[in-house]
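Q: Convert this sequence to structure tokens.
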Amino acid sequence: MSAVIQAQAARLPAWSLFGAVLSGAGLPIYIYAPKFYADNFGISLTLLGAVLFGLRLFDVVQDPVLGWVSERLGKLRRVAVWFAGLVLAASMYGLFAIEPPIGAVWWFGLTITGLFTAFSFMSINFYAEGVTKASSMNDGHTRLAAWRETGALLGVCLAAVAPSVLEPVVDAPFAIFAVSFGLFVLAALIWMTPEWTGGGTQDPTPIRAILNDTVAKRLLILALVNATPVAVSSTLFLFYVESRLDAPGWEGPLLVLFFFAAAASSPFWARLSDRVGPKRALLSAMVLAILFYACVLALGAGDVWLFAIICVLSGATIGADLTLLPAMFARRMAQVSPNGGQGFGLWSLVSKFTLAFAAAVLLPILQLAGFTSGATNNPETALSTLTYLYALVPCILKLVAIGLLAATPLED
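A:
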């Protein structure tokens, strides 16, 4: 039996690479794509926010359906994930490397839809397969989550810095990024191929069984509230660095500091969770996050190095969110929905909805305050609005998340 467990553990790096590819197609695209289309094609921030929010309303239907499909794929899961991976790579190429053959906003909506549909399907199957994988390992859920989420955070780092690194040396940095991303997708698909078993042997779980489970429902609500601060800061990060800190060109390095700190901290939070329990570990990370977000309120133009320190410290707290919450939800799914697909369809919906909500609400507020992306003469009221949205709103949301977590019996 120990030999089987060791063989299972030996494949964990494949999970890291696959997680890295998925994360590279997730958060960084929400960070870069709106600004890319606003700067290059003149689309208003309000319109971009409306498109992103509309797509997430589509996800309200799509992601649970994808979870339903995932639970019924069986041995076809491997083929289906390969197809989705090809769609993911093609959509990324179309988004950043092709001059829009139709209206830019329509092309943006089309390619983003393809990208995030493929992203959702691959993520749902990836996490659902993880429920089966973890069951064959000692302390499987936390251990697998540490490998998976560390890889995911490193992938975010690479995707976040790549356009900034490429910009001084190539004419089309985002096009090169899109092509490189496609090659990484292919490598991840190949390496992960032996891991697709088709899920558990249990019958598919009705979605109402998950929503009727008190702990699973509370974890989903907690994930929604707790992920929103990261969605807020991620949506506004490029605008904040360029305009509030007056530090154009520093966006990539600062993003890398933030996500690298999150990746480096993931093993620490996993070990702390083993010692004090996931609830206490997560609560401590949330309290620290509020302190670090609050420090941003005092920063202004030129405070790049102070902000860099805050990026490292706040990024380290995010490592707890991204490692412990998915592990806790996976543990619950092992009891409630062993195949995992339906549950992680809901999880995917929650994760993406926070980003869409942030874009739909914050970008129009910025525009109403008089903020213009890339401008050198934004009014002080617009810059103050940007600061409050970037730092104060996450503090308030984190306080709500702390209250929810304190009232949730996760240890049970």
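The two ends are 29 Å apart (CA to CA).
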